[in-house]
Structures are given as C-alpha cells and as structure tokens.
Specification:
Layout (H helix, E strand, L loop, with lengths): L4 E4 L5 E4 L17 E4 L30
Antiparallel strand pairs: 1-2, 2-3
Pfam families: zf-CDGSH
GO molecular function, one term: 2 iron, 2 sulfur cluster binding
Keywords: 2Fe-2S, Iron, Iron-sulfur, Metal-binding
C-alpha cells in the first residue's frame, strides 16, 4: 500500500498524495486523483477541494513544534 502524505501548505490547502479514499458524511465516495488539494479556508466553491479562493484572504502557517 502506498503511504499517504498530507502537507499543510502555508496560507493554503491541505495537499493529499497517495492511495486514499475521500468520503462525505453519508459514506459517499468523492472522485479523487492520486494527488489533490483540500480546502482549508472555507472559501472554495468546489469543496471539499481547493479552488484557489484562499489567495489573499487566508493566513495560516503551521509548523511542527520543535522539542528540545
């Protein structure tokens, strides 16, 4: 099985790569490609997918907390 990777893009989407199934709250399967971006800002008109609407309207930079 291919390892799934989810990247939190700065000021943007969640980028998903790998063999993953995306389903809605009722268990219906969304058509998905081997790589796709999910909306994180709530502005996309193609939710759950990102359509770029966040540009200039959403700020979020998430980093892993470094433990010393």
């Amino acid at each position: 099985m291919t390892k799934v990777q989810i990247k939190v893009n700065d000021n943007g989407s969640f980028r998903v790569t790998g063999d993953v199934e995306l389903i809605d709250g009722e268990g219906n399967v969304f058509e998905a490609k081997p790589a796709f971006s999910l909306c994180r800002c709530g502005l996309s008109k193609k939710k759950p997918y990102c359509d770029g609407s966040h540009k200039g309207h959403f700020e979020s930079v998430v980093r892993v907390e470094q433990v010393e």
